[in-house]
């Protein structure tokens, strides 16, 4: 009797446990049905739920939440592998992300379920166009044809794959290569809005700011990237390269300001060697170097440095002024006047430039005078007796009576020699000439009314030397 009661009690407990387990399993099954309802709606004859799924996917794509959209489509396909529209949506999304192999696979699965669908076939064709265009753009970039690479990216790849981060980064690299730094900043800005930790976008955006000489902003981009990945090779190279460039530049400027000009020259050259393509910064380095070289009197080197500046920025007034000063050092009077005149036109209120231009014009005018010392073959420090001796020797050499076979050349030489002696053989005239005063050659000599060794109008002229010519000639009559 007691054993029977125990058996009955055991059966009652077991029976209750069994009922409880059935209840739990039924509850779990109901929950699963509720949670999976949106994904499997299309399989139970409820097209409205399927439309809601694709609407959610569409909204996620619009706000660039591609991962969420893809996750929903994958879940729907896993729940119902016969949901053909999900394959098509997934294929389209993967194409936009330029995940071309996965996209092609989804298109083929959709077309297997819905053969002959013209819209899907057209999108698959667009996928192949985008894939080929991206390959072409990469090849063109590697070969150095950056402009053509940009055409492929913009006109094909980003038309059919607008969310392709690989194409956007390649576009940014191409824009930097074509020196369109502002556009590169905009392009990488869009990428960083979607993914603020994109290391390549941070590198490229920093590089664009670097080439615009906005070094502080460039540094911040490099530093952010290195905080995310301290061992990133390109970011480290860019960051420490910029630090060294700025350090060398400051050293050059400090030495120049302290008057350590030769050391400054070496520092400027070292800074310029860092990156020959950094035009926005190198223009200031070349100008600083030119100014130091002018102070050192190294005119030829200074002209070269200032020309480098003007090839980068042809309107930089200070570079025109410095090159004008450098050209004065190398006695390129006309070049100096041209540069300083251009600078004066660009900055008409600057009196220092006007004074420099006046000096250059005066030097040019003096350079265009005849060098009477050179004509007589004497130095500028020659004594009066040396001048007189040189004159007599040349007058005898070029006297027309002694040059009957080349009388025209001899007469011209003789006139020039006589004019030189009239200026240099007179203390007052020589002083005026040496001071740079404008002496009228036609009035003082060289065949003018004031002096003509051959006379005019058929009138005879007798030219005498004091003491006569060597050899007993007392005078020559014409």
TrEMBL record:
Keyword Hydrolase: yes
Annotated Pfam families: DnaJ, TPR_16, TPR_8
GO cellular component: endoplasmic reticulum lumen
Primary location recorded for the protein, binned into one broad class: endoplasmic reticulum
Ranges occupied by TPR repeats: 84-117, 199-232
CDD domains: DnaJ
Residues of the J domain: 371-437
Main EC class the enzyme belongs to: hydrolase
PROSITE patterns (alphabetical): DNAJ_1, DNAJ_2, TPR
EC annotation from Swiss-Prot or TrEMBL: 3.1.1.11
Record-annotated membrane-spanning stretches: 12-36
InterPro entries in UniProt: DnaJ_domain, DnaJ_domain_CS, J_dom_sf, TPR-like_helical_dom_sf, TPR_rpt
Subcellular localization: Endoplasmic reticulum lumen
Matching Gene3D superfamilies: DnaJ domain, Tetratricopeptide repeat domain
Keyword annotations from UniProtKB, A to Z: Endoplasmic reticulum, Hydrolase, Membrane, Repeat, Signal, TPR repeat, Transmembrane, Transmembrane helix
Protein name listed in UniProt: Molecular chaperone (DnaJ superfamily)
Species lineage: Eukaryota, Viridiplantae, Streptophyta, Embryophyta, Tracheophyta
